[in-house]
Amino acid sequence: MMSPLTSAAERAQLAMMLEVCAFPKPGNVDRCHDYADTKLEHFLASTIFARPALEEAATGKGRIGEIIGHAVKQTNVHKGGNTHFGAFILLIPLVYGGGIDGAVQAVARTDVSDAVAFYKAFALTNVRMNKTDEIDVNDPKALDMLRDRNMTLYDVMQHSAPNDMVAREWMNGFILTRRGADLLHQIGPGREAIVEMFLTLLATEPDTFVMKKHGRAVAEEVLVKAREVMDGKKVLETLDAEFIAAGINPGSLADITIAAIYIALSEGWEWDS
Amino acid sequence: MMSPLTSAAERAQLAMMLEVCAFPKPGNVDRCHDYADTKLEHFLASTIFARPALEEAATGKGRIGEIIGHAVKQTNVHKGGNTHFGAFILLIPLVYGGGIDGAVQAVARTDVSDAVAFYKAFALTNVRMNKTDEIDVNDPKALDMLRDRNMTLYDVMQHSAPNDMVAREWMNGFILTRRGADLLHQIGPGREAIVEMFLTLLATEPDTFVMKKHGRAVAEEVLVKAREVMDGKKVLETLDAEFIAAGINPGSLADITIAAIYIALSEGWEWDS
């Protein structure tokens, strides 16, 4: 089912490009909306710059933690800050493993060196840390602690999973990635399907990035509001404006959306029809 | 002056990405406007897919006509049709030669094999042929004719130059590419400079793509209207709407804009500030 016209790295780049262009995407950067510090062009520049790391992942060789680190470093050359850290946590294993089954095996095989490489990459980004996280990436002792406890990168994700739906994908067989890809197949071809898929996830899965930033109540309100749009009680553009005004940006679902587009493209879903 | 953070191929990709996102860009596809058959995502997909050909060009080895052919083939895998044919005619020599001086030398060294490879690539695209062009790319005899006349790719561009400002760049030392890059340096950093640069070119250089499609009178009217925007007599968004309604898309100036951004980026101009 793999498209003969594109490589795995190219499909991953297409997924990143299609996700950020899709609009209106409530609260997130899209074709018609920038953040003050991170603009459409920053996301698209990262999409271009990630190519070598994605090609490295596509070889299925080397260490996942290190390759995620390469992706973060390669994309950390513009002033837009972190754009795809969460996306790389999903995309790199998926590209490396040639799909979800291979990714599940790959993440289970990570070791402490992956965890160390990952934390070093993490330190380069401005990713919001959960206050309850024990391992502070800015603490030089953190790397020693990883080594002392012999924590693999899988262990790190397990540690983060309760509060982070991206990390949770490593634990649960990429269940939301799978669901997003299935939704794209169901909805049908064309870029418009991405908005509908995103909205469906938004109406059913509390975004953990929103939760870390605004608390559980706000994250659950997001579900209700997305549901209202799906039920025709609210216009999508209105929800987008509301979220932007409130600083609600469902970034973790955006990461999962990218992974889902990648899987769907690899299974023959057509963005372009 | 070359930025240490990006490769030549990446700067060429950035130039393609920044050009298509810049808005409002009167008449052309931009962040907020698609054509019916060619959408923002098609231009961005081509930007992703062109990477191998751009990297090939960056080696400074191989034959320019063939590398342009590779770029056209690599980007011809979506349903958006030709997006960057004219841009590649400029970008490939510029990347190959490491700048304008090297490009001038490289285009002078083309031979009949470049011309043949170019025409074979040309046949893949839907580029509008000038009715007065003698060499019909859809005519199988065209390739024989190139060989019989021993026409180099430089000769082909010379043949096209009277009616094609992109081909003319090969003849005149990339004079508009240079001017566009100088404008970016003068206007200053940031993506907004691209729109101002494009508008300045639009107000001074009749777009030959518009001329082939609509005739000389319309192409010259474009200059007057762009001038009105620069003089504050008309709003840019109004001009954009007028051009879109009339099917006026200054595609050759878009190609030159891409080349100019590439040169400016390579000389240290910052898109991202």
Description:
Two copies of one chain form a homodimer. Chain A is mostly helical. Helix content of chain A is 64%, strand content 0%. Chain A has 16 helices and no strands. In chain A, helix 1 (8-21) crosses helix 3 and helix 4 runs parallel beside helix 7 (112-122). The A-B interface holds A 5-6, 10, 13-14, 17-18, 21, 31-32, 39-42, 44-45, 47-49, 51, 77-80, 191, 271-273 and B 5-6, 10, 13-14, 17-18, 21, 31-32, 39-42, 44-45, 47-49, 51, 77-80, 191, 271-273.
Describe the largest sheet of chain A: none
The general outline of chain A is globular
Q: What would the CATH topology of chain A be?
A: Triphosphoribosyl-dephospho-CoA protein
- Helix and strand content put the structural class of chain A at mainly alpha
Greatest chain-chain contact:
A-B, 28 and 28 residues
Number of domains of chain A: 1
Helical content of chain A (DSSP H or I, runs of 4+) = 55-70%
**Secondary-structure element series of chain A:** HHHHHHHHHHHHHHHH
Q: How would you describe the oligomerization state of the chains in this entry?
A: homodimer
Distance between the termini of chain A: 18 Å
CATH class of chain A, please?
A: Mainly Alpha
The CATH superfamily of chain A is known as Triphosphoribosyl-dephospho-CoA protein
Rounded mean pLDDT of chain A is 92
Give Rg of chain A in angstroms. 18 Å
H/I helix tally of chain A: 16
Number of strands of chain A: 0
Report the uncertain regions of chain A: none
Beta-strand portion of chain A reads under 5%
* CATH architecture title of chain A: Orthogonal Bundle
